[in-house]
Amino acid sequence: DVSERLDIVPAQFRVIVTRRAKYACRACEEVVVQAPAPARLVEGGIPTEATVAHVLVSKYADHLPLYRQAQIYA
Question: How many independent structural domains does the chain possess?
Fold first, then answer.
C-alpha cells in the first residue's frame, strides 16, 4: 500500500562558505600560492545566481515589487 502527499518547504536562505587554503614554501618565504576565487555574478557582491534569478522571477513574472520582496525576506 503506497500513499503520496504533497508538501512544501518555505523559502530558506543558506550561506555558502568557500574555503581556499594558502600554501607557502618554507625554502622561499616570499611565495604564497592560493587557488583563484570562483567567479561571481556580481563582482564584490554576495548573492548567488539562484538568488538573483529568484528576485528577478518574483519581480517580473510574479509582479512583486522590490519593497514587498524585502518585507517577505525580512
Answer: 1
Q: Are the beta carbons of 69 and 52 closer than 8 angstroms?
A: no
- The cell numbers describing 10, all together, are 518555505
Which domain covers residue 52, as residue numbers? 45-74
β-sheet bridge partners, residue 2: none
pLDDT of 9 above 90: no
pLDDT at 1 > cutoff 80: no
DSSP assignment of 10-66, as one string?
-----PPP----EEE-SSSTT-EEEPPPPP-SSTT----HHHHHHHHIIIIIS---H
